[in-house]
Write a structure and sequence with these properties.
Elements: E1 5-7, H1 8-15, H2 19-28, E2 34-36, E3 39-43, H3 57-83
Antiparallel strand pairs: 1-3, 2-3
């Protein structure tokens, strides 16, 4: 896709979520956006997932941290479940 800037509606369609979800992600800082008048624009580089469906480096880092935390907290339970 040759586009580098998206509206909240376009991002909602790309990520298959509602516009409200996008606004919440902007407000929480999960998605960086620039306010222009009453609207927001979102740069392709600031999307949490690449348009092609590939994870960004930041997305991979978040997943790796979540996996590490889960293994640390539930490692023994996961090992026991793996035996079954």
């Amino acid at each position: 896709m040759g586009k580098d800037i998206f509206t909240t509606s376009e991002v909602a369609k790309l990520l298959r979520v509602s516009r409200i979800a996008i606004f919440k992600k902007i407000k929480s800082g999960e998605i960086k956006a620039q306010k222009i008048g009453r609207n927001y624009i979102i740069r392709k580089a600031d999307l949490p997932v690449e348009i092609s469906g590939q994870l960004t480096k930041d997305g991979k880092r978040v997943i790796a941290e979540a996996v590490e935390k889960t293994v640390h907290e539930y490692g023994e339970a996961l090992r026991l479940l793996g035996r079954e």
